[in-house]
Amino acid sequence: MSELERTKTIPLVKAISHEATKTTYEAIELSEPVLIQVQQFYDEQAKSGSLSAMGLLISLVSNVPREAIKKMAFTDYKACEVYMMGFLAYSPPPESGVTN
To answer: For residue 78, is it within any domain?
Structure first.
């Protein structure tokens, strides 16, 4: 597997806004999740399903409120999901067997 992109900006085809903070987002800044965020993703997935869990993970990693993420266009969601799945599906390459 090639090296993972550690951060990625996803430009949104449709801006999303959060009423409470009066903030509008035209792009989502994503990065590698930390362990607690991945744990929260799996907990949410078991409780509420994959769509809800990925929305939570996108929110946690991007610091965009979950209520705003819920208004995201599906194509924007899928672009974020593809990036995040790279980390969730990651397995390091096997050791070459060479020892020092």
So the answer is: yes
Judge whether 98 lies within some domain.
Answer: no
Q: Tell me which amino acid residue 50 is.
A: S
Query: What are the tens digits of pLDDT across the range 33-91?
Result: 999 999 999 999 999 999 999 999 999 999 999 999 999 999 999 999 999 999 999 98
Question: Tokens standing for 90?
Answer: 């990651």
Q: Render pLDDT for 82-95 as a digit per residue (tens, 0 to 9).
A: 999 999 999 888 87
DSSP calls for 24-51: EEEEEEEEPPPHHHHHHHHHHHHHH-HH
Tokens 């809800």 sit at which residue? Answer: 52
**pTM of the predicted structure, to 2 decimals:** 0.89
| CB-count exposure of residue 68 (10 Å: 0-12, 13-18, 19+) | buried
Say if CB 44 and CB 50 are below 8 A apart. Answer: no
- The total number of structural domains in the chain stands at 1
* Structure tokens, 75: 């194509």
